[in-house]
Amino acid sequence: MRRAGAVSPRTVMLAIAGDSAAGKTTLTRGLVEALGEDRITSLCVDDYHRYDRQERKGMPFTALHPDCNYVEIMEQHLQLLAMGSPILKPVYDHSTGELTRPELVEPTEFVIVEGLLPLHSKLSRACFDITVYLDPPEEIRREWKVNRDTAKRGYGSDQVLAELDKREPESAEFIRPQKSFADVVVRFGPIEVRQDPPDTPLSAELLLRPTIRHPDLTGVFSDVDRNAMHLKLLRDEDGRPVDALHVHGHAPREESHTVEKAIWSELGTETELPGSLGQLGEGTRSEPLAITQLLLLYHLLEASS
Amino acid sequence: MRRAGAVSPRTVMLAIAGDSAAGKTTLTRGLVEALGEDRITSLCVDDYHRYDRQERKGMPFTALHPDCNYVEIMEQHLQLLAMGSPILKPVYDHSTGELTRPELVEPTEFVIVEGLLPLHSKLSRACFDITVYLDPPEEIRREWKVNRDTAKRGYGSDQVLAELDKREPESAEFIRPQKSFADVVVRFGPIEVRQDPPDTPLSAELLLRPTIRHPDLTGVFSDVDRNAMHLKLLRDEDGRPVDALHVHGHAPREESHTVEKAIWSELGTETELPGSLGQLGEGTRSEPLAITQLLLLYHLLEASS
Q: How far does Cα B44 stand from its chain's mean position?
């Protein structure tokens, strides 16, 4: 299904929605590196906060609430970007909690929009060619959030855990419902049915919804170990058909490479499969992340062709 | 002539262009008071500065240069306002010279856009129903600028005069050419042919260009002292026909009231002629300012009907 954003051939728009510390930045970073900043621009819609941290202290909601964000301006800016127009984007400084000087964003061939609420409204959803929801298990996300916010945002872990509890009702009401509007739902986490030791790299389950046309992977899985990776036809939560692609954290490099080549070959491109995917930050590589990024790269390039 | 902004019946757009300290804010204030903030919104497009005061110090142009402003974003925001959409407007703090947190502007029935460059581009001009250029004699404007910037913006008068000299080439290149695109050119100043004493209140000459349909004032001037006020058919700088309305600073209240009633009666409205016009700030009233504001009020109401 093509959306309003796809009417103009100029900008291909990808949304990556998910709760705080769900992995949006890590996923985005690999895509920007693969295509290069000349071709792809990323922005975070959490910059559309209506109130700064100080003002929010006296208010009955957290930053997750739509009323705490300029949703109408976010929609307007997404429409402008989809039509190839520049925007003057507000800026929220996560380190100080202040709203500061806005910055010019000029859309390139591809734009990634990540954040808490990019799929909140019908109008915002209509701006995207491809929509992703990151859905890690809550205990994994809490761990990621504590690690990040204590290391990079100057909070104590007690503060972060208290904030998570305070946000939970609004996560349930506004963030998680966006999952139902995503073309791809990505769940990084341990595979629950397996009893892997605690240091096992995270696996990924990707729900590939038929709302967009995914590459045909039915042929490739005869060649790979079905324990490391498999594709399973399921019914989604709403009863609709969906493909679930599982990539185990221990999937051998050669096997994930076979799947990557299968995805890439469907593009009919002569360019090389990018080597920069799957980077977790400290030089470690994740096969499930690499395959997730490659699938999104496939959709970006497919939508622009 | 109706412009693009007039296609949508929702927002009537008035531009007040002119150099720094030309009287834009004083003119705007009386219009906002007359209609009330529920019906009319004013904004200043000098907020679209691309660089803050510190950054400009190392640059080869002043704040008057289009390259020193987000002209494309200004155009975009003017179009959005003209179509009745809200904008998140950047904010330039004149007291500190810093670019700060943007603010939401929701268009009301009428929007006044004042500033240095609202008529700079064809696209920006197309957003307005009525366009005004303020054109005081340079020596008067210099005096106003020194008075204001020393009193309200913390500069010394030597600094202000040096800045005026530095800005002069860009005033000539970018600000003053906007005069040719205005429907109304307002020149507050002494009447040069008269030898009035120096404390005589300023007079006004209003060029009423036939680019919009002005109220018919040809009948009313038989009733007033031709020394205090008159309407004169002229050729404009480009040879085109234009009406010049002169209002002397000493025009008697009763006579300017006769002209005001003539303008107001053309609207066919039952509401009272507003009493708040012509205020110079310290309780003093200017008949030329009152008539200028009333004429603009006429055009605002006429364009919305």
A: 11
The nearest CA of chain A is from the CA of B122 a distance in Å of 18
Q: Is B88 left (phi over 0), alpha (psi -120 to 50) or beta?
A: beta
| CA pair distance A190, A258, nearest whole angstrom | 23
Summarised one tens digit per residue, pLDDT across range B34-54 is 999 999 999 999 999 999 999
What distance in Å separates the CA atoms of residue B225 and residue B238, rounded to the nearest whole number? Answer: 30
C-alpha torsion angle, residues B168, B174, B178, B180 (rounded to 10): 80
| Per-residue pLDDT at A193 | 63
The pTM of this model reads 0.90
Task: Give me the residue from B76, B88, B98 closest to A73, CB to CB.
Answer: B88
Q: Which domains does chain A have, with CATH numbers?
A: 1-131 (3.40.50.300), 183-305 (no CATH)
CA A99 to chain B, closest CA, distance in angstroms equals 5
* The residue to which tokens 């996300």 are assigned: A141
Q: In terms of C-beta density within 10 A (0-12 exposed, 13-18 middle, 19 or more buried), how is residue B56 classed?
A: middle
Q: Which helix (H) or strand (E) holds B204?
A: strand B203-208
pLDDT digits (tens, 9 = 90+) for B163-207: 999 999 999 999 999 999 999 999 998 876 666 666 678 899 999
Q: To probe the interface with A, which of B48, B68, B72, B101 has the most A CB atoms within 10 Å? A: B101
Q: How far is B218 from chain A (nearest CA, A)?
A: 47
Q: Report how far residue A214's alpha carbon sits from residue A231's, in angstroms, rounded to the nearest whole number.
A: 12
Q: HSE of A78 in the Cβ direction (CA atoms, 13 Å)?
A: 34
Q: Measure the CA–CA gap between A29 and A17, rounded to whole angstroms.
A: 15
A51's CB contacts (< 8 A; 6+ apart) are A59, A68
Nearest to A104 among B70, B86, B100 (CB): B70
Mean pLDDT, range A257-284, rounded to an integer:
85
Chain segment B264-303, per-residue pLDDT in tens: 998 888 888 888 899 887 778 899 999 999 999 999 999 9
What Cα–Cα distance (Å) separates residue B5 from each residue in B107, B136, B160? 13, 28, 37
Instruction: Please name the amino acid found at residue A271.
Output: T
Structure tokens at B99: 């670019």
Token output for B100:
């700060």
Choose among A132, A110, A107: nearest CA to A34.
A110
Chain B positions touching A101 (Cβ under 8 A) are 52, 90, 98-101
**CB spacing of A73 vs B90 below 8 angstroms:** no
Element (H, E) at A235: strand A229-235
**How many angstroms separate the CA atoms of A119 and B95, rounded?**
39
- Starting from the edge strand earliest in sequence, which strands make up the sheet with A110-115, in order? A40-44, A110-115, A12-18, A130-134, A184-189, A203-208, A241-247, A229-235
Q: Write the residue in B76, B88, B98 that is nearest to A90 by C-beta.
A: B88
Question: Which residue of A50, A101, A123 to mutate against B (max B Cβ within 10 Å)?
Answer: A101
Confidence check: pLDDT of A6 > 60: no
